[in-house]
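Lab notebook: predicted structure, single chain.

Context: the supervisor wants predicted structures on file for every construct in the current expression panel, including those that have not yet been purified. This is the next one on the list. No modifications to the sequence; it matches the entry in the shared construct table.
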Amino acid sequence: MLRILSRSTSRGIVRVTQCTSTAMTQPPPGKMFSLQASLPRLPVPPLEQTLNKYLKSVRPLLSDEEFKTTEQIVQDFSRNPGPKLQKLLEYKANQEENWLSDWWMKTAYLEFRSPVPVNVSPGIVFPRQSYRDKEGQLRFASKLIAGVLDFKVMIDTQNLPVEHMGKKPLCMTQYYKILSACRTPGKKCDSWACYPPNESNAPKHIIVAHNNQFFSLDVYGADGRPLSEAQIYRQLKSLVQESAQVATPVGLLTTENRSTWAKAYSELVNDQENSASLRKINHSICLVCLDNNLPQDMSDERSVAAQQMLHGGGDSLNSGNRWFDKTIQFVVGREGISGLTYEHTSAEGPPVVMLLDHVVKYCSENHSPGSDTPAPATPTKLTFNLSKNIKEMIDTARTHLDVLVDDVDLNVFVFKDYGKNFPKSQKMSPDSFLQNAIQLAYYRIHNEPAPHYETGTLRMFHLGRTDTIRSCSEASLEFCKAFVNSNTPKERKVELLRNAVQAHKSYTNEVIQGNGIDRHLLGLKLAAIKNGMNVPDLHMDMAYTLSTHFRMSTSQVPAHSDSVLVFGPVVPDGYGVCYNPQETQVHFGVSAFNITPETNSKNYINMLRNTLLEMRDLFQGSMQSKL
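Prediction complete. Output recorded below exactly as produced.
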């Protein structure tokens, strides 16, 4: 049974205690939250609707015989125990602000035991900067920190404008979490704490990592104003001089299996100095990692940068100069490489991308130096007393991480032949067009359709997170088969592509309106477990296992800047594909695992590039084209 514990809000901390996934207290009213009360609650979709859509979604993945078996299992579930579980979910939805948010944070993140680098935490690569030496690195880092604080002022004063999807306002609570939260390891389930800016103990410091050493840097002066860029620069220069030697990489412990890290954490906090250092890290606004090392082969700088943001490159590079439990880590590397890593428990990509777009824009502008704040505090070095056992655990973490890093096959590329403009010119949804290209590229390599996950937002609902857009459909499979058949006329391929694009667009609209199937099916399963019932046969069926083994895990994360988000595959034999579509180009990050020889990111990128060009060529000569 699930063990849901109550949250603690003592001393202004919104804390998710072990095995709990309550998000946070209701934020105070303000411009940012002016429409929050008008947001509807997340609905529980009708059971029959979900089951019918589920059957339709698994059909392209199954043989006729397999589908017949699954049909019978679904019919049996619709009679028993489906209706009982549906009533339990509906009751939960009536009692809570969001019936899913608790369960989702817990099952998707806090209970997940694999290391958070690669498996949980995405990385984002910023546009390449112009600095090339240590001085330039520190100057840029100072401006970046000032940009973060500039954005934080808008969060603290609740002056961020409410985001909308069409005319519908979106939930803004994730912005309260990205610059004030941290995850802490637990033996079976992690915990998560948020320190909201409206509380008396809101953090006033950041953590700066350099040469595997950590410093607490107060970024507000005695008058409560943020430090000037010049003051930040002087503070950074001071702590860099103090950390000239590379230290034992305590941060590598945060790359371990969560239960293993929990054992080390429980030993570390028994020491008073360690405990104080850990509290400083957990309670900080964010981390800023000043990196030193880069691989010798820099022929593909953006892919190198992506690897640095995703995992730090391993022990020989910068992975020890991280603290992966912290929600946001900005990385300022050498040779103009910069970006961030974010731990996924707190938020989805769009709020983080809005932060990065603000910071990138801020760093590109000339700002008045501003007046210094009075009496800034000196940076404080965080100390760790490391026992023999902890040092051995660090050595083990080093070995485990290097194995993981060696297994990750990650590359970034920019498709420059067209962007959103082309599918728009053909009156097609750009995202649905790209999703069908991603599916077709997979089909052309592997000669079969892929169970295909695209992140769909639920932020039109109070405390909404995500649901799954199942991009593999009967329509997409029909298009894939026709495309690879040289005997199919071009006009027929165009017709089937339009059908597939429309099918994806319709499914997407259903998901964002709260009528997706994956979170509903998860809720039915968890309702059974919570109430002492067996896991339903539907969830034990081969079709459910196959259709949720997402060999294509994808997400559209649009940014105004030339940035790209990257993440690891969610299954050993899969791909992770993230893309930032712009008007005339698309930035892609593609990952796979080397352990599976059938998947290779460069092969996939080449096929995707060719597929995008050939899909455009289908429309050559079309009178509808505006290009």
